[in-house]
Amino acid sequence: MSGSALSIAEHHCRRCGTCCRWEGDVCLTQADVRAISAYLHMTEEDFINTYCRLQRNRQGLSLMDAVDGACCMLREDNTCTIQPVKPQQCRDFPQRWNFPGWEQRCPAARKGGATC
């Protein structure tokens, strides 16, 4: 995890969807695949064939991107289609993963409480 001057306690998600639009992989564990496919009432194979691709490093599965580059599970109103079972990577933000400069990209982290 990258160091951060922002206390995680100060992070109050505004559900703006910015983190769902960042470039990169949304890595899936086998537990994620199992939970998401069950939530969507799909077989794991159908879920993988419909919503997944290989990670860029070819070491596992990732959720596909929508045409605009956002996560394929992000709705127009910035809610997550699979919120109750979203991938561990998503649940861990920003407590367990972030990258240098994430505070500048995430409106909830900005000083003054900017809204999206």
Features of the shown structure:
single chain, 116 residues, alpha+beta, 3-stranded antiparallel sheet, 4 helices, 3 strands, 7% strand, globular, disordered N terminus, disordered C terminus
Textual characterization of the structure:
A hairpin with a 6-residue loop joins strand 2 (52-54) and strand 3 (61-63). The chain is of the alpha+beta class. Helix 1 packs across helix 2. The chain has four helices and three strands, in the order βααββαα. The chain has helices at 30-39, 44-51, 88-91, 102-105, and strands spanning 27-28, 52-54, 61-63. Mean pLDDT is 82; it is low at 1-9 and 112-116. It has one domain (11-109). The radius of gyration is 15 Å and the shape is globular. The two termini are 25 Å apart. Strands 1-3-2 form a three-stranded antiparallel β-sheet.
What is the count of structural domains? Answer: 1
**In total, how many beta strands?**
3
Strand order of the largest sheet: 1-3-2
* Sheet with most strands: 3 strands, antiparallel
| Overall 3D form | globular
User: What is the CA-atom radius of gyration, in angstroms?
Assistant: 15 Å
- How much of the sequence is in beta strands? 5-15%
What are the segments in which pLDDT stays under 50 over at least 5 consecutive residues?
Answer: 1-9, 112-116
What structural class do the secondary elements suggest?
Answer: alpha+beta
Q: What portion of residues is helical?
A: 10-25%
Distance between the termini: 25 Å
